[in-house]
Amino acid sequence: MEFITYEVNNAVAVITINRPRALNALNSQVLEELDQTLDAIDLEVVRAVILTGAGEKSFVAGADIGEMSTLTKAEGEAFGKKGNDVFRKLETLPVPVIAAVNGFALGGGCEIAMSCDIRICSDNAVFGQPEAGLGITPGFGGTQRLARIVGVGIAKQMIYTARNIKAQEAYRIGLVNEIYSAAVDEAGNVTATAQENLMAGAQKIAAGIARNAPIAVRNCKKAINEGLQTDIDQAIVIEEKLFGDCFETEDQRAGMGNFLAPKDQKLKTVPFKNR
């Protein structure tokens, strides 16, 4: 891989888009490498994924405008499909994905962040869908996911005006869950950068997910994602089936068995086995 790095520690995978000279912009090669990386995730080992960008300036600055500038109508549609296919694979990955957004998350960067389950950011993060100012529409799901996450009115305003928003406004409208800043001691010395605290926060959230029963977490993700695409009556049926699917598993027996165990026999952390 030239533009993607991948590592796994303690059941948490970290995917880093590593094209800092281009502010981690998404071209065809980056999308192909990301697609291959998602396919290679060992779901028997990995229980949560963190997605981030290399450096402190940019998460993903957008799709590569240099590559897009000469596309024909057919080529533009094909490029949109390529991005959408990869982002949909990310969105439907069985395990939760956390976007750790450092710096710019514009266009395709905002869209890939919205394909993740949870978004957190550093205080220098900037989000936006600037495509209308470039003569195009968002092409990697921005017109669909932004409205679902922040509401139709705010999404339309952001997309129609092509206006970027900073971290605090992204938090206010519910686009991100948490903002991380640099840590400074009493003497004014920086003891941890915003990027370092952001990744530590992402690791903490991922570790909390990884401690829980993998089958249950995956079924929760599936129930939420599929339920949002239908009416409440059908959504409840989806939940019932996934709820029932957890029973008679080793995870369910271990979790409930530990809950019911005498106080002196309870385990602080249940060793869930994903079966």
Give a short synopsis of this structure.
The protein is an alpha/beta fold.
Assign an overall shape: globular
Order of helices and strands: EEHEEHHEEHEEHHEHEEEHHHH
- Going across the biggest sheet, name each strand in turn: 1-2-3-5-7-10
The proportion of residues forming helix, as a percent range, comes to 40-55%
What portion of the residues fall into strands of 2 or more residues?
A: 15-25%
Number of helices: 11
Task: Indicate the mean pLDDT.
Answer: 96
> C-alpha Rg, in Å?
20 Å
Low-confidence stretches: none
Based on helices, strands and strand pairing, what is the structural class?
Answer: alpha/beta
Taking the sheet with the most strands, its summary is:
6 strands, mixed
- Please give the number of β-strands: 12
Distance between the termini: 32 Å
